[in-house]
Amino acid sequence: MSILFAASEIFPYAKTGGLADVGHALPEALRNEGERVYSIMPLYNQIDRDKFNIVYAGLTFDYWLAGVRHQFDVFHKKDSQDELFIYNPILCDRLGLYYDDFGDFGDNALRFGLFSYSILEVMIRMKLDIHAIHVNDWQTALVPMLIKTRYKLDIKTVLTIHNLAYQGVFGKDVMDQLELDWDTCFKFNGLEYYDAVNFLKAGIYFSDKVTTVSSTYAQEIQTASFGNGLDETLRINSYKLKGIVNGISTEVFNPKKDEYIEKNFSFKSYKGKKKNKELLCEELGLVGDNKPLFIFIGRFTSQKGVDLILDAMELFASYEANFVILGSGEDSYNNAFRSLIDRYKNIKIRIGYDEGFGRKLYASADYLLMPSIFEPCGLNQMICMQYGVLPIVAKTGGLKDTVIDFTDINNLEELSLGVGVTFDEHNLFWFNHAIAKALSLYANKDKFEDISKHNMQIDNSWKNSAHEYINLYKK
Ligand code: ADP
Prior knowledge:
ADP-alpha-D-glucose binds at residue 15. The protein is an alpha/beta fold. The protein is built from 19 helices and 21 strands. It has helices at residues 18-32, 89-92, 108-125, 142-151, 174-177, 182-186, 199-206, 215-220, 231-236, 271-284, 306-311, 313-318, 331-338, 355-364, 380-386, 397-402, 428-443, 445-456, 463-474; strands at residues 2-6, 36-42, 54-65, 68-77, 83-87, 99-100, 103-104, 132-136, 156-161, 169-170, 192-193, 196-198, 209-212, 241-243, 293-300, 322-329, 347-351, 367-370, 390-394, 403-405, 418-423. The strands form 4 sheets. The protein has a 9-stranded mixed β-sheet with strand order 3-4-5-2-1-8-9-13-14, sandwiched between helices. A 7-stranded parallel β-sheet has the order 17-16-15-18-19-21-20, sandwiched between helices. Adenosine-5'-diphosphate is lined by residues 17-18, 21, 297-299, 326-328, 353-355, 358, 378-380, 383.
């Protein structure tokens, strides 16, 4: 099969979250299974073309929309020509991908509308013989609608929802700006959303298949509490909705050869993990590398349970344990954490996005805190297992599907799930209860190490999920 995978961010070229990781790892896993996969993303101006060997593909074209001429240049990787990039100044010449310090860019509808048109134009102009187009999140969700209403092509489409909280909702003026047809696009249950337009809703309506990134989340989003206003649309379209859990790239997240970490290790050379912890504690001035080390890595946004972390800081400070928090996000949270930077001896806080420091934390930590309010899939809990970390997770979405509580297991050997600590109710009492359980487990060194080594051997790769996607494309 020949698949076109379109996304607004793909690791390592541009990344703001899990979508970029999936954009890298899923096409790679599909290629390993023998499928032909083209990937396509915007060539944002912050992408270093020289570093990544991205060269002009010899195609430039104009596309007229509402009387305005837009120019697109197509690029590809020099050594892997199936990796395509589109450059257009409105889409790409920005300081951020979707927003800057002043908030969301005001022309995101136009930017990603242009991207969606150009995906189809590139496919047609380069004569790519595509069986299915796989689009991701609201930024590319107009593609299935354009295929059915404007281009009228016989190509099947799959939309993956990575996070229903982001939908691409804009004023109706974008209908004319993007030359979208009122009758075929806006009416019925398509693009229209409370008298505005909703890109993701159009994607759900017009795609042949809709997936989301875990089975539990696929169920949750059909309910009013998790549906973000689209639960009814999802219930109506549930016949084509499927949950397929994400994997992670076991090449990228591999403690045996991770170049960011001080000492490479595996479950067989477990001492290396302890050495990483020792070095990290030394570097950060944390006392006692024999104490459990808890980390949090993630976007500072309410979804990730950041309020719970902030509420728990005094408790953290009272424990015989060390904590490191790495993240950045909404200003109010950045400021709240910034004000606590020097307050506690056993809690270190770093604000910013730092891939290398993140890896060092995974390599050194015993526990990862992930008290998300909702979590479509979550990658951190799977990444951390590779490095022998036990995740402490709220029982929601993909976290529920990928982590089992250590008190719920009988036989570690036969278990194919990762092991950690889970808690049901999202409040400080149960979060603290989970941490207390983690501390007591840590006191039993042998048991803790057995679980840590077990987690390192869990298959969180894309292999199984890639097969599920292949079956879906075949359908
Ligand atoms: P999201 O909802 O942000 O997509 P995921 O758990 O799906 O959350 O993916 C988050 C990814 O981003 C992981 O690879 C995680 O390690 C990484 N990450 C998040 N914040 C940071 C940060 N501040 N520094 C380094 N890596 C980070």
